[in-house]
Write a structure and sequence with these properties.
Elements lengths: L12 H7 L7 E6 L2 E6 L9 H9 L9 H9 L2
Antiparallel strand pairs: 1-2
Length: 78
């Protein structure tokens, strides 16, 4: 495996599948001794994840002009 002129490498499919590296998965690199370790970013909504993309698409798309109190009354059944 070689690094391209842009500094890119392809992670083999078997490794991506085993580690759950889907398209748009955010990863980080760490140096351990003379090796580089790649890890999936966890514990926060990573920039570029499917969840973040969904939130981005929905943001500002509401068309109902209700107050928060009115919405809460509806959801609570009052």
């Amino acid at each position: 495996m070689k690094i391209t002129s842009k500094g890119q490498v392809t992670i083999p499919m078997e490794i991506r599948e085993e580690l759950g590296f889907l398209p748009e998965t955010e990863v980080q690199f760490r140096i351990r001794g003379k090796s580089a370790v790649i890890e999936k970013v966890t514990g926060r909504i990573a920039r570029g994840t499917r969840g973040a993309a969904l939130v981005g698409r929905l943001r500002g798309s509401g068309t109902v002009t209700m107050t928060t109190d009115e919405i809460m009354a509806l959801t609570r059944g009052k």
